[in-house]
Design goal:
This protein has four helices and three strands, in the order βααββαα. It is an alpha+beta fold and 111 residues long. It has a three-stranded antiparallel sheet with strand order 1-3-2. Helix 1 crosses helix 2.
């Protein structure tokens, strides 16, 4: 997939909207901003261009699905960590286990 970046004025013309509308959309992050540096003779100039609305939606949808997948992975790993913690004996259960061993290890002769 090849994405093309536009100036806001080009984007407004492409979508058939007024420049101010495109500017408002850019400010409300409806478009993904792409910032890059261009080196001119004596200085470096940073320029910002924007992906079209359709391209922005595709990129955002892909990003959101990856983020959701990462959240699922994180929650699964935290669940497995919790389940591991629950299967390990705690201090109280160790104390009961020691008591039980003490009672079963003693023979009637030593009592």
């Amino acid at each position: 997939m090849q994405l093309k970046i536009y100036k806001l004025s080009e984007l407004a013309e492409l979508e058939g909207i007024h420049y101010q509308t495109a500017l408002k959309r850019a400010k409300s992050e409806k478009y993904i901003a792409v910032t890059f540096s261009v080196r001119q003779r004596t200085k470096t100039v940073e320029m910002t261009r924007y992906l079209s609305k359709a391209d922005s939606e595709v990129v955002l949808a892909a990003f959101n699905s990856l983020e959701a997948k990462n959240e699922d992975t994180r929650s699964d790993s935290s669940f497995s960590e919790l389940s591991k913690k629950k299967t390990k004996p705690g201090k109280r259960s160790l104390g009961l286990l020691k008591k039980h061993r003490k009672n079963t290890d003693s023979t009637p002769e030593t009592r």
